[in-house]
Design goal:
Order of helices and strands: EEEEEEEEEEE
Helix content: under 10%
Radius of gyration: 13 Å
Strand content: over 45%
Number of helices: 0
């Protein structure tokens, strides 16, 4: 059983930065992956980035590539999302997720555990 708690959201102007944190309780095995998703009002939840625990391989959605960085502190069992050059279209509730590694990392149903979300608002 894994529990995830996000923090670090807030309001920022376009071009600014935020760092989201996701504290995990429970064991994150090498066969797992961890990801960040986001959901804007009236839209479907979309994948932002995933980190494969084995090999620490990161993959990003095209919309955030070269602006966001996903990372993990193994000792603290915490996942991070560094968000730079933020745009108004990045405004959303951001969720942390974890699950057994599968091919379809961008699919919501691929993840077993979810956090409650943290709100990010980017103003122009």
């Amino acid at each position: 059983q894994v529990q995830l708690v996000e923090s670090g959201g807030g309001s920022v102007q376009a071009g600014g930065s935020l760092r989201l944190s996701c504290a995990a309780s429970g064991t994150i095995y090498d066969s797992y992956y961890m990801a960040w998703f986001r959901q804007a009002p009236g839209k479907e939840r979309e994948a932002v980035a995933v980190l494969y625990i084995t090999g620490s391989i990161a993959v990003y959605a095209d919309t955030v590539k070269d602006r966001f960085i996903i990372s993990r502190d193994t000792a603290e069992n915490t996942l991070y999302l560094q968000m730079n050059s933020l745009k108004p279209e990045d405004t959303a509730m951001y969720y942390c997720a974890a699950g057994l590694e599968r091919a379809a990392w961008q699919v919501v149903s691929s993840y077993m555990w979810w956090g409650q979300g943290t709100q990010v608002v980017v103003s122009s």
